Each structure stands twice: as C-alpha cells, then as structure tokens.
Amino acid sequence: MRYIGSKILLLEEIEKVIKNKVLNATTFCDIFSGTSTVARYFKKDFEIISNDLLYFSFVLQKATIENDYCSKFEKIQKFLNCEPFDYLQNSEIVLTKEPFIYKNYSPNEYSERQYFSNENALRIDFIRQTINDWQEKKLINENEYFYLLSSLIESIPFVSNIAGTYGAYLKHWDKRALKKLELVKLDVVENHKKNKCFNVDANELIHKISGDILYIDPPYNSRQYAPNYHILETVAKYDYPEIYGKSGMRPYDDKKSDFCVKNKVINAFSNLIENANFKHILVSYSNEGIMSINEIEDVLKRFAKDNTYHLVQIPYRRYKHISKNVKHNLHELLFYIEKRKND
Questions:
Q1: Residue 65 included in any domain
Q2: 80: domain range?
Q3: Domain assignment present for 61
Q4: Is S-adenosyl-L-methionine a UniProt keyword of this protein (predicted)?
C-alpha cells in the first residue's frame, strides 16, 4: 500500500540498529503503526504491541498482528460451497444497503468524483456489505472478519485514481484505476505470542503499556494523515459519514495529531518519551521534518542513559529504485537511546 512515510525500504536499517544495540528483548511496540509494515516485519522476532489513531490501520493490525494464524473460513465456505474470496470478487453484485462508495466516489448520476470506476466502486460496496452480513449471521469469526476487511483495504489502492493519497483524485483516468478490483490475500506470521493492537492516541496509550523496544515513527510534516486516507477510513468503518468538499472528506477533528503542528510537536514528543516505560527507544524521522535534528536530540538526551544516544542518517538515494525526483539531500533519520528508568 502507498502510504506517507512507509518504512518498507528502511526495515533492514532498523533491524541493524536493534541487533547492534539491543540484547534479550522480547517485546516490540510500533506506536504509530500506519500500514503495520514495521510491526509485521518484527513479529517473527518479538511479541508485538501496535497502535494507530486511524481505524483502517487498526483493521490491518487486527488482521496481521493480533491475528496469529491464517484463517480457514470453514463455516462460510460450507455455507457458500465456494471460497469466500472467489465469491466476493466474482459473484453477482446484490446490495443490502445504499452503496455509499458508489454514490460518493465514482462518476455517475450521484457524484462527479472519480476516485474509482463505477464497477469497482460497486464491488467495494458489495464486498463491504457482505462482510458485515456474514459477521452478523456468525458465518465468520472476528479474525476472519478483520482478515477479509483488511484484504479489501489493501486492495483498494491498486484501483484508486489518485497520485498517492486520497486528498484529491486525478482529473484523467490512470490505467491502474480501470483494472478490476482483486482482493489481496495477506500473509500472517505466526509467532505464538499475545500480540496486542490499539486504536488510540499514542500519548494516551503510552501510559498503559510497557516493554523492551519502543519504535516511534510519527508524522513528520504538517499534513494530517486522516484527510489523506479518508476513503480507506470510511471503507473500514462503513459508517455513512456526512462528507463535504470536492474530495468528499469525512470529519476528522478527533483524528488530528499534535505531531503535525509546529507549536505542539516538541511538547507531544517530549511527553511521549518521558512517559515511555520501555528500555530501548528508536525514532524514525526525516531531516526535512518540522522537528529539527537538534530538537529531537535535546529531547532524547534528556531521558537517555549517558552515552547511549545514537543517530544514523540514511540517504534516500541509497535505494536505487527510489524515484529520481527525490531530493539528493533527503535523509531518513534513525535515532536510538537506552532510556533511564522513570523516577
């Protein structure tokens, strides 16, 4: 999935720091989980705590982090006499409710927005409504519900008529958006541990959790994540929100992050570090973020054990398949400290 600040390309660098700095850790917390890429990667090694303020991210986490086995869908397969993915993708579309995505995000008599083709928008509504229907009829369990919903969410970006996020749609059709929606089957790593997922503000959650490694990957610029992924949030909740504006935005006042606000970010970051009951803290950031390297260093050193502060600057151009348009002076910053115990 295309996502602001995705860490797919930096996983090995994060792992390298952990191997060099951390011994005998058993728990890993990804407190700004996003697409849960980092949490999924480290699930093979640790008991995972993951969290994100956006509900669609929570759905992804429930399916691949908290869920610790690949669902077999035995009850629904017996009911359908076929595989549920095949049914959802290929069966005739029969809707039980108003098709919210079709009516608001594809070009037809109801809307001019062209995030999706009419065919794909209707298919999204059908799949979403069917998943709810199966859950209500107890034909799927909770793990299977989140797995199917997560598969739908992961599939949507591949047929979305956008440049990168859902803040705006393209005026002309991208050929990708005209392809037929195909559900993505997700890999689930089994680690046989009590992995936990949350859907709250990181600065609230930090008071309630503890562990060995805390990985912090906060927003680094003034772009709030909620409006950039509003359609995925609506598909996840399917709550028929009152939308507004050219892009059909859902209300997001309760999803705003202080990490996106210049005059609030230092205080939010400082409070997060201060209240963290974790021995090892890693922070991912950008050298073009609204917090400077010096500001981050000052906060971390305030709570670090002596001589444990460490910074790795990773040039984006190191990754050969990164777009040539990326600035040559753009770096990913990876900070590490061993934290002093809270007084």
A1: no
A2: 70-187+228-255
A3: no
A4: yes
The pTM of the full predicted model, rounded to 2 decimals, is 0.92
CATH number for position 292:
3.40.50.150
| Same domain as 303, residue 210 | yes
User: What pLDDT is stored for residue 27 in this prediction?
Assistant: 98
The confidence score (pLDDT) of residue 203 equals 98
* Positive or negative torsion for Cα 234, 236, 238, 241: negative
SS3 string, the chain, reads CCCCCCCHHHHHHHHHHHHHHCCCCCEEEECCCCCCHHHHHHCCCCEEEEECCCHHHHHHHHHHHHCCCCCCCHHHHHHHCCCHHHHHHHCCCCCCCCCHHHHHHCCCCCCCCCCCCHHHHHHHHHHHHHHHHHHHCCCCCHHHHHHHHHHHHHHHHHHCCCCCCCCCCCCCCCHHHHCCCCCCCCCCCCCCCCCEEECCCHHHHCCCCCEEEEEECCCCCCCCHHHHCHHHHHHHHCCCCCCECCCCECCCHHHCCHHHCCCCHHHHHHHHHHCCCEEEEEEEEECCCCCCHHHHHHHHHHHECCCCCEEEEEEHHHCCCCCCCCCCCCEEEEEEEEECCCC
Which residues in the chain land under pLDDT 70?
Answer: 1-8, 317-328, 343
My answer on whether 322 and 290 are in the same domain is yes
